[in-house]
Specification:
Elements: H1 6-21, H2 27-45, H3 51-62, H4 64-75, H5 80-107, H6 112-135, H7 147-162, H8 168-197
Helix pairs in contact: 1-4, 2-3, 2-4, 2-5, 3-7, 5-6, 6-8, 7-8
């Protein structure tokens, strides 16, 4: 869904990438720094109820997820390990965000803790389904929402909740759970149809 915005974001971030290309900073450094930043802010701030500051800082570090790929293209250093590292550490960041929210809900005996855990699990399954299908040489459609959409929905609802907007966090997490489940179903259907043809 957000893929149409990628060219615009690339134009905005290209000057930053070009500046970084003139330094010793590598794409893998950005990947690791982004993951550490997201994980540290989510696990330090979400469990104590600092939702807006946590979401804001996480969002800043999420942008490095776009910068690392851009820097790799500018430097001509794109490689299989970089792609593997990026995908793997994305899962770490996702776990920190929804794990931090789960801790906050659990600390307050809030039933939404179960939904936060489900959002974490279904996000992993959506990503795994595509990786596994591609490993088997099968086609797998992207589906309704991918990681960028999950991050937008999740961090926006967390941040707005931190600003006092009522019910927005519950709505955001339930929407994320439903849309991610639909996406997983779409991917399973796509792989099933691809397997029949092979």
């Amino acid at each position: 869904m957000l893929n149409t915005l990628r060219p615009a974001m690339a134009r905005i971030l290209t000057p930053v990438g070009e500046a970084l290309a003139r330094t010793p900073v590598t794409p893998n450094m950005l990947t690791v720094a982004g993951t550490v930043g997201v994980s540290a802010s989510a696990l330090a701030l979400f469990p104590i109820g600092e939702l807006f500051p946590g979401a804001f800082i996480c969002t800043i570090f999420v942008f490095t997820d776009m910068l690392d790929g851009l820097l790799a293209r500018i430097k001509g250093s794109s490689g299989k390990f970089g792609a593997f590292l990026d995908s793997t550490l994305d899962r770490v960041a996702d776990a920190a965000i929804f794990g931090g929210m789960t801790l906050w809900f659990a600390k307050n005996n809030h039933p939404m803790a179960a939904v936060a855990v489900y959002c974490l699990a279904i996000g992993f399954l959506v990503s795994y389904s595509k990786a596994r299908a591609e490993g088997l040489g099968l086609d797998c459609a992207n589906g309704l929402i991918e990681r960028p959409e999950r991050m937008v929905i999740g961090l926006t609802s967390i941040g707005l909740s931190g600003l006092g907007v009522p019910y927005i966090l519950d709505i955001g997490l339930w929407a994320l759970a439903v849309l991610s489940t639909i996406t997983l179903g779409q991917r399973i259907k796509s792989v099933y149809e691809s397997a029949k043809k092979s």
